[in-house]
Amino acid sequence: MMTPERINILRTAFHTAKLKGLHKIIAPAPKNFASELLGLLTRKTKPERKYHSKKIKYSYSQTLPNHILSVLQKWALVTQEKVASPLDFNPSYPHYWSADSGDALFGAHFNFLLSQFTDFSVCHPIYNKQTMNLSLRHAIYSVILNTKATATFMFLPS
Question: For 58-72, what is each residue's pLDDT tens digit?
Answer without folding.
Answer: 555 567 788 998 999
